[in-house]
Write a structure and sequence with these properties.
The structure holds two protein chains of two kinds. By secondary structure, chain A is of the alpha/beta class. Chain A has a domain of 208 residues: TIM Barrel (Alpha-Beta Barrel), CATH 3.20.20. A five-stranded parallel beta sheet of chain A has the order 1-10-9-8-7. In chain A, strands 2-3-4-5-6 form a five-stranded parallel beta sheet, covered by helices on one side. In chain A, helix 7 links the parallel strand 4 and strand 5. In chain A, helix 7 packs across helix 22. Chain A is globular. Chain B is an alpha/beta fold. Chain B is built from five helices and five strands, in the order E-H-E-H-E-H-E-H-E-H. In chain B, strand 4, helix 4 and strand 5 form a beta-alpha-beta unit. In chain B, helix 1 crosses helix 5. The chains are: A alpha/beta, B alpha/beta.
Chain lengths: 557, 137
């Protein structure tokens, strides 16, 4: 089969002159001139002498050209800054709606929704298992009414909305579409991203309802539905973040994430979808940890690996399918509860690494996140950190400034090679779905996490404020406390909602949805109708539990 | 109950509620095991009832409860009450996670013996368990 398919020839400039010509013809620029802070004239997007000196080769490629090592756009941040997207969500939909508006008013350019544990695990706010968890780690969502309040007074066609939700992603996506429908906003106008990546749940984040196979099927229902109905929406964010936070190394994070991506692509192809009909909308999400150059190299290696895989393994024709677009978040796990103000410095350095790695959007963590959900003030400092990098440091004046550095290029190639070894190993095991069932990535991560802890305990890796430069004087910073009463209010609201809906329409929609699940149909159109008729997140999840089964933690150590 | 000091400490490491953050719990479980204790790990998403039942069945001296979801003020008290109701409140309960300092004080008042916050080394936890688990003579 592979023999019959032809590799697409991609646009590749042979010389700097050739690249510059197409740059001058088409690349987007935000300004006419890019000067340094001390008035040194015009900084070039890419320097001719340096390109020629560094023995430019096809492995590296030019910015905006295959294999996209140096970035997916020729002008990168000269053309457009990354999207500053602070993840937010707590309490009731009203609380989060207020935080959203606060962030937008302070110059944030995209919204990002954090849901609470019951919403993420498929329980309504009035369920017994939701006790103590409502609104604590994110916003509580059970019904379409909650979604209406969450996005009250926010024009869905004017903002991009990211939703971090996985086993109940189909429900959140359906509620978002149903809300757009009620407001008369066309799905084609909706921009944003839904995380919708279950494989990394079994590997690292550990929020699930069903076993891996039906879970991946549901993920791909969203990919398929968006490919034909909401083409501006990224239907999946293939995530390494949680894998890294669970203890993986940079190479493991990269390898397991790409392997997850391969699994989704294969599943969609098996459904008969055309690669270029959905691959351009696959998006990624990586962590940015402390080791500065390793992180920069990781992003560069990620783009190169994905471009090659899409072209050489899946025979993508569109260059858009080959471009790895990614969101990044600074490493929560690197923050310390001791001397918490030091976290501002950590976050700034990690954010700079993400920018030098060429990410498309970025969340910077707040200094207080090892203590509680962040306060408004702490979030503002985190957002301002990105704005300082964007506006003051001058790093956005040029493209991939670390390209050609011996160290960074070597690291990029080494990380690519090491990650590919893991990817081959997972292929040998039968793909990521099978590898997850065998516990392979889980065990690798647990081992790395344990070894890292031993290094810290032995003092071989120094963490300021923990095993070096620790301080007896406690640094007190204010933390956000969540009102215990809100759980009661949310519970009562859900109960009232259930009493007020039309029972016949609700029952009919519920039955139709269950039937669609049993028949293996794409659930999305049925779900959009069901949530509009008042079916709740918990009720949909109960159908999933009944039809697809329930997954139990293997409890591996 | 056990009498010989040679007898290894039996300890249950538990994850309560819907929280999926298990990195800390698994690292601690492994460190305690490597320190010679018999460690039972419950796996994720346990209810307080399940945890107390496992603790009694497994005849442990100690429960280490990990919570990073903010539900600690509900889940810790439930575990303590269920232990009391089962007349198993000789089992020492300690915890770890993302827990604000004010809540640490409140939890200790309720009877949680210790709360370990982020940044604690495995050595500290091992030493604490060895010091605080006293076998009845």
């Amino acid at each position: 089969m592979a023999g019959k398919k032809k590799l697409t020839s991609t646009k590749r400039s042979k010389t700097y002159k050739e690249w510059k010509k197409s740059y001058d013809e088409g690349a987007r620029e935000r300004r006419e001139r890019y000067e340094s802070i001390s008035f040194r004239p015009q900084v070039e997007a890419l320097d001719k002498a340096l390109c020629e000196q560094s023995g430019y080769d096809a492995e590296l490629g030019y910015p905006g050209e295959y294999p996209f090592t140096r970035g997916i756009h020729p002008s990168m941040y000269r053309g457009r800054l990354w999207t500053m997207r602070q993840f937010a969500g707590f309490g009731t939909p009203e609380d989060t709606n207020k935080r959203f508006k606060y962030l937008l008013s302070h110059g944030q350019t995209g919204l990002s929704t954090a849901f609470d544990m019951p919403s993420l695990m498929g329980y309504d706010a009035d369920h017994a298992r939701s006790k103590g968890e409502v609104g604590r780690e994110g916003v509580s969502i059970s019904t379409i009414e909650d979604f209406e309040i969450l996005f009250d007074d926010i024009d869905l066609s004017a903002v991009t909305v990211s939703m971090t939700i996985n086993c109940t992603a189909t429900v959140a996506m359906a509620m978002y579409f149903a809300l757009a429908k009620r407001r008369g906003t066309s799905f084609e106008k909706l921009g944003g991203t839904i995380q919708n990546d279950m494989l990394k749940e079994y590997i690292a984040q550990k929020e699930w309802i069903c076993p891996p196979e039906p879970a991946v099927k549901l993920n791909c229902d969203i990919i398929e539905y968006c490919a034909s109905h909401a083409q501006r929406f990224n239907p999946v964010s293939i995530s390494g973040y949680h894998i890294r936070e669970a203890g993986a190394t940079a190479v493991q994070e990269l390898a397991f994430t790409i392997a997850d991506g391969i699994a989704y692509v294969e599943h969609c192809l098996e459904r008969g979808m055309e690669i270029d009909s959905f691959a351009p909308r696959l998006s990624f999400f990586f962590d940015v940890h402390n080791d500065f150059f390793e992180e920069v190299a990781k992003f560069r290696a990620a783009r190169r690996i994905w471009a090659k895989l899409m072209r050489e393994r899946f025979y993508a024709k569109s260059e858009k399918s080959m471009m790895l677009r990614t969101h990044a978040q600074t490493a929560g796990v690197s923050l310390t509860a001791q001397q918490p103000m030091n976290n501002v410095a950590r976050v700034a350095l990690q954010a700079l690494a993400a920018v030098l790695g060429g990410v498309q959007s970025l969340h910077t963590n707040s200094m207080d996140e090892t203590l509680a959900l962040p306060t408004e003030e702490a979030v503002k400092v985190a957002l301002r950190t990105q704005q300082i990098i964007a506006e003051e440091t001058g790093v956005t004046n040029t493209v991939d400034p670390l390209g050609g550095s011996y160290y960074v290029e070597k690291l990029t190639s080494d990380i690519e090679e090491e990650a590919m070894k893991y990817i081959h190993k997972i292929d040998e095991l039968g793909g990521m779905l099978r590898a997850v069932e065998l516990g392979f990535p889980q065990k690798e991560i647990a081992e790395a996490a344990y070894q890292f802890q031993l290094r810290v305990d032995e003092g071989d890796y120094k963490i300021v404020g923990i095993n070096a430069y620790s301080d007896d004087a406690e640094q007190e910073i204010p933390t956000l406390s969540i009102d215990h009463e809100l759980e009661k209010r949310q519970r009562e609201r859900v109960i009232a909602f259930k009493e007020q809906r039309n029972p016949a329409a609700w029952q009919a929609a519920l039955e139709t949805l269950k039937k669609a699940c049993k028949e293996g149909k794409n659930v999305m159109p049925f779900l959009i109708d069901a949530v509009d008729k008042g079916v709740t997140l918990g009720e949909v999840s109960d159908i999933y539990r009944e039809v697809f089964g329930v997954y139990q933690d293997p409890g591996l150590l | 109950m056990k009498e010989s000091p040679e007898q290894p400490i039996r300890i249950l490491i538990a994850k309560a509620g819907l929280d999926g953050h298990d990195r800390g719990a698994r690292v601690i479980a492994r460190a305690l095991r490597d320190a010679g204790m018999e460690v039972i790990y419950t796996g994720l998403h346990q209810t307080p009832e399940m945890i107390v039942q496992s603790a009694i069945q497994e005849d442990v001296q100690c429960i280490g409860l990990s919570i990073l979801s903010g539900a600690h003020m509900v889940l810790f008290p439930e575990v303590l009450e269920l232990l009391k109701a089962s007349k198993a409140d000789d089992i020492v309960v300690f915890g770890g996670g993302i827990i604000p300092r004010d809540d640490v004080v409140a939890l200790k008042d309720m009877g949680v013996k210790e709360i370990f916050l982020p940044g604690t080394s495995t050595k500290e936890v091992i030493a604490w368990v060895k010091e605080n688990i006293v076998f009845p003579k």
